[in-house]
Amino acid sequence: MNEKQMRKNRWQTTFFFIVIIIITYLSAAITNFHFIDSVKTIPKAFEWILSNLIVSMESLEKLPQILDKLGETVFMSIAATTLAAVVSLFLAIMGSKTTKVNNFFSAIARLIASFSRNIPVVAWSLILLISFGQNSLTGFLALFVGTVGFLTRAFIESVDEANQSSVEALTATGATYFHMISKAVLPQSLPQMLSWILFMIETNIRSATLVGILTGTGIGYMFDLYYKTMNYNLVALITLTIIITVILIELASNKIRRVIL
Amino acid sequence: MSLLNVEGLSKFYDGETKVLNDINFEIKSGEFVSVIGPSGAGKSTLLRCINRLVDINEGKVLFDGLDVASMKKKELRKLRTNIGMIFQHYNLVPRLTVIENVLHGRFGYKSTLQGVLGMFTEKEKEQAFHLLEKLGIAEHAYKRCDQLSGGQQQRVGICRALIQEPKLILCDEPIASLDPNSSKVIMDYLQSISSEMGITCIVNLHQVEVAKEYASRIIGLRKGEVVFDGASQFLYNEQIENIYGIESRELITV
C-alpha cells in the first residue's frame, strides 16, 4: 500500500461515517421517530411493568401447566437444532472449499443455506402455518429451517478453517475422501461446531417463544393467550420462567463449551 | 533397476507460469537423493508431481514402471500407499493423539468403512508402537500432537510415513522449521531409514551443507530446470553458484 492509497482509505472512513449519520437522520425524519420523545416514555413503561407484571400467589397455581408447556418448547428447540445440525453438517461438507466434491454441489449447498437463512424465522413460521396448520410441527419446522441456514454457514467456516495441511498429508498416504473427512477435517472442526450448536439451542429457545405466539404452540401460545385476556400476573410468571430457563441453558452450555474447547 | 523415472516433466500453474520445465532424471532403488535450489525453484512441486498431489501437465513420471500421470483413482491410491511423505510443517492432525496420527498411515490399505471406524489390526498397532519406540517417542504415544515439540512432531510424521511400508519416501523440507539439534536428529533418522531399511529417499533441502553431508546424490533446481545432477562430492562452489544464481559466499550457511 502506498501513501496515496493510505490517505484515500482514511478519507473513505470519514466519508462513510458522514453517510451513516445522514442516513440515520433521514430515516428518523421520514418515520417521525423522535429520539428524545421515545426516551421520555421509558419511565412510564417501567411504571406499567412494575404495577402490572407481578407474580401473584394465585397465578402460581398455574405453574405446573406453564412448566409443562415450557418443557415442550425447550425440547422442541433442542430437537430442531440437533436435527438441523445433522443436515447442516452434510451441507457444509458439500459446500466448503476444502471438502467439496464439485462446484455444482457446493453451489447448491450454499444456495440452500442462504435461502433458508435470509428468510427470517418469523416469516418461515407464518409461511409454514398456512401449509401445516396450528400445531407444534409447524413451530418445529420453522426453527429447523432457520437453523439449517445459520448452522450451514457457520459449519462451512469451521471446515474451511480446519488445517489444510493434514488433509494434504492424509491424501498423500492414500486415504479415501471419507477417511480424510472423518479423521482430518472433523476432529479439527468438531469442537467449534458443537459450540455453534449450543449457541443455536440458546437462540432457538428464545425464538421458540416468538414462533409459539405465531403458530399457537408451546409457551408462546400461553403467553399470547394470557396477554390477550389481560391476565398480566400469569404473563409475568411466564416471562420469569422463560428468563430463568434461558439463563440456565446459557450457564450449562458455557460449562460444556469450556470442557470441549 | 530404477524405481523412479522422470521424463520431460513440465508443470504450469494458471496455464502460463512455468514451475517445472523439462525435468529428466532417474532414481535407483535405495538411493538417498537431495533436491536443492532457491525458494520458488519448484522443489515442492516436483515432489508433489511424483505422488500426484498436483497434476502433471507434460512429460512422464514412471514409478516402478507404471505411468503416474494416467492413473485412475484406485491405482492412484495404491501408488500413494507405496510412497510416504514428510512435510515441513509435519501436517499432523493437531487435536488427535500421536498413536492415532501414526495409524493414519495405514489408510491406504483400508476400505472406507474400516478407516472411518478406525479399525486397525493388533499387528498394525504393534507396528505403530514399534516405530514410535524406534524413533524414541513411545512415551508420548497417548499425548495430543499439539503438545509435542517440533522435532517430536516431525518424528511422528516419519512414523506415519514408515507404517505405510513405502518403497519411496518424499521429504519436503523436513528440517526447515527445526532448530539445528532437532534437524540433525531428523536427518540421522532419515539416513538410517535409507541405509537400514533400504527405502529410497528424496529430500528437498535448502541447506547446501546438510545436503552434501547426508545425500549420496544431489539434484540442483533453478527456475524449474535441473542445473546439476550428480554425486554430492562433485558439487563444488561453482555449481552452487550456478544453482542459487549468486556468489556462494553470500549464502548464509547454517
Automatic annotation (TrEMBL), chain A:
Spell out the protein name for this chain.
Phosphonate ABC transporter, permease protein PhnE
- GN (gene name): phnE
Automatic annotation (TrEMBL), chain B:
User: Which UniProt keywords are given for this protein, alphabetically ordered?
Assistant: ATP-binding, Nucleotide-binding
Name of protein: Phosphonate ABC transporter ATP-binding protein
Gene designation per UniProt = phnC
